Protein backbone atom coordinates (compact mmCIF):
# COMPACT_ATOMS: atom_id res chain seq x y z
CA UNK A 1 0.00 0.00 0.00
CA UNK A 2 2.88 2.37 0.74
CA UNK A 3 4.23 1.84 -2.78
CA UNK A 4 0.81 2.74 -4.20
CA UNK A 5 0.74 5.91 -2.09
CA UNK A 6 4.21 6.91 -3.24
CA UNK A 7 3.31 6.25 -6.87
CA UNK A 8 0.09 8.27 -6.65
CA UNK A 9 1.81 11.16 -4.89
CA UNK A 10 4.59 11.12 -7.47
CA UNK A 11 2.04 11.34 -10.30
CA UNK A 12 0.38 14.30 -8.57
CA UNK A 13 3.76 16.02 -8.23
CA UNK A 14 4.79 15.74 -11.88
CA UNK A 15 3.14 18.20 -14.32
CA UNK A 16 4.97 16.69 -17.31
CA UNK A 17 3.61 13.23 -16.49
CA UNK A 18 0.13 14.69 -16.00
CA UNK A 19 0.16 16.41 -19.39
CA UNK A 20 1.72 13.50 -21.26
CA UNK A 21 -0.23 10.64 -19.64
CA UNK A 22 -3.47 12.11 -18.30
CA UNK A 23 -4.18 14.61 -21.08
CA UNK A 24 -2.38 13.33 -24.19
CA UNK A 25 -2.76 9.62 -23.23
CA UNK A 26 0.85 8.87 -24.20
CA UNK A 27 1.50 5.78 -22.13
CA UNK A 28 5.07 4.52 -21.59
CA UNK A 29 4.22 0.93 -22.60
CA UNK A 30 1.26 -1.24 -23.64
CA UNK A 31 -1.04 -2.13 -20.76
CA UNK A 32 -0.04 0.96 -18.77
CA UNK A 33 -2.79 3.16 -17.40
CA UNK A 34 -2.80 6.17 -15.14
CA UNK A 35 -5.15 9.08 -14.65
CA UNK A 36 -6.17 11.58 -12.01
CA UNK A 37 -9.18 9.57 -10.90
CA UNK A 38 -7.11 6.46 -10.25
CA UNK A 39 -4.63 8.38 -8.10
CA UNK A 40 -7.42 10.08 -6.14
CA UNK A 41 -9.03 6.69 -5.48
CA UNK A 42 -5.73 5.22 -4.29
CA UNK A 43 -5.21 8.04 -1.79
CA UNK A 44 -8.78 8.50 -0.57
CA UNK A 45 -10.50 5.15 -1.03
CA UNK A 46 -7.98 2.32 -1.33
CA UNK A 47 -5.51 3.44 1.35
CA UNK A 48 -7.58 6.14 3.11
CA UNK A 49 -4.31 7.92 3.83
CA UNK A 50 -5.79 11.33 3.00
CA UNK A 51 -8.76 10.85 5.31
CA UNK A 52 -6.61 10.74 8.44
CA UNK A 53 -2.86 10.78 7.82
CA UNK A 54 -2.05 10.52 11.53
CA UNK A 55 -3.95 7.24 11.74
CA UNK A 56 -1.73 5.86 8.97
CA UNK A 57 1.47 6.28 11.01
CA UNK A 58 2.94 2.84 11.58
CA UNK A 59 1.03 1.23 8.72
CA UNK A 60 1.57 3.15 5.48
CA UNK A 61 3.31 6.23 6.87
CA UNK A 62 6.49 6.13 8.92
CA UNK A 63 6.14 9.15 11.16
CA UNK A 64 4.46 12.45 12.00
CA UNK A 65 6.60 14.31 9.47
CA UNK A 66 5.21 12.22 6.62
CA UNK A 67 1.70 12.59 8.03
CA UNK A 68 2.05 16.39 8.07
CA UNK A 69 3.06 16.53 4.40
CA UNK A 70 0.24 14.16 3.45
CA UNK A 71 -2.22 16.32 5.43
CA UNK A 72 -1.08 19.35 3.43
CA UNK A 73 -1.70 17.41 0.21
CA UNK A 74 -5.13 16.37 1.50
CA UNK A 75 -5.98 20.00 2.25
CA UNK A 76 -4.95 21.15 -1.25
CA UNK A 77 -6.83 18.28 -2.94
CA UNK A 78 -9.93 18.90 -0.85
CA UNK A 79 -9.92 22.55 -1.95
CA UNK A 80 -9.81 21.75 -5.63
CA UNK A 81 -12.27 18.86 -5.35
CA UNK A 82 -14.71 21.25 -3.67
CA UNK A 83 -14.11 23.90 -6.32
CA UNK A 84 -14.80 21.69 -9.35
CA UNK A 85 -17.74 19.57 -10.39
CA UNK A 86 -17.28 15.80 -9.90
CA UNK A 87 -17.55 15.34 -13.67
CA UNK A 88 -14.66 17.71 -14.42
CA UNK A 89 -11.95 16.19 -16.57
CA UNK A 90 -8.20 16.24 -16.02
CA UNK A 91 -7.77 19.36 -18.16
CA UNK A 92 -10.11 21.29 -15.86
CA UNK A 93 -8.09 20.26 -12.82
CA UNK A 94 -4.71 20.94 -14.39
CA UNK A 95 -5.88 24.34 -15.62
CA UNK A 96 -7.45 25.41 -12.33
CA UNK A 97 -5.66 28.12 -10.31
CA UNK A 98 -5.55 25.78 -7.28
CA UNK A 99 -3.72 23.01 -9.16
CA UNK A 100 -0.17 24.37 -8.67
CA UNK A 101 -0.76 24.13 -4.92
CA UNK A 102 -1.67 20.47 -5.31
CA UNK A 103 1.48 19.84 -7.34
CA UNK A 104 3.67 21.61 -4.78
CA UNK A 105 2.08 19.78 -1.83
CA UNK A 106 2.49 16.48 -3.67
CA UNK A 107 6.16 17.25 -4.38
CA UNK A 108 6.77 17.93 -0.69
CA UNK A 109 4.93 14.76 0.30
CA UNK A 110 6.84 12.72 -2.26
CA UNK A 111 10.16 14.06 -0.95
CA UNK A 112 9.16 13.14 2.61
CA UNK A 113 7.99 9.64 1.60
CA UNK A 114 11.16 8.83 -0.35
CA UNK A 115 13.79 10.19 2.06
Distance between the termini: 17 Å
Based on secondary structure, the structural category is mainly alpha
Can you tell me the residue ranges where pLDDT is under 50 for at least 5 consecutive residues? none
Summarize the biggest pleated sheet: none
What is the CA-based Rg, rounded? 13 Å
Strand content: under 5%
Order of secondary-structure elements:
HHHHHH
Per DSSP E runs of 2 or more residues, the count of β-strands stands at 0
Number of domains: 1
The percent range for helix content is 55-70%
The 3D shape can be described as globular
Q: Please count the helical segments.
A: 6
Mean pLDDT: 96
In words, what does this structure look like?
It comes from Streptomyces monashensis. This is CdiI immunity protein domain-containing protein. Pfam families: DUF7945. With 115 residues, this protein is an all-alpha fold. The chain has one domain (2-113). The protein is 63% helix and 0% strand. It has 6 helices and no strands. It has helices at residues 2-13, 15-23, 36-46, 64-83, 90-95, 99-113.
Summarize, please.
This protein has six helices and no strands.
Give short descriptive properties of this protein:
115 residues, mainly alpha, 63% helix, globular
Which helices and strands occur, and which strands form pairs?
Elements: H1 2-13, H2 15-23, H3 36-46, H4 64-83, H5 90-95, H6 99-113
Helix pairs in contact: 1-3, 1-6, 4-6
Amino acid sequence: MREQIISAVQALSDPDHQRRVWIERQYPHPGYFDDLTMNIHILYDDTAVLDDPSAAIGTTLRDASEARTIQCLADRLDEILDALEPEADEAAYLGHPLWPGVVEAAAQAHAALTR
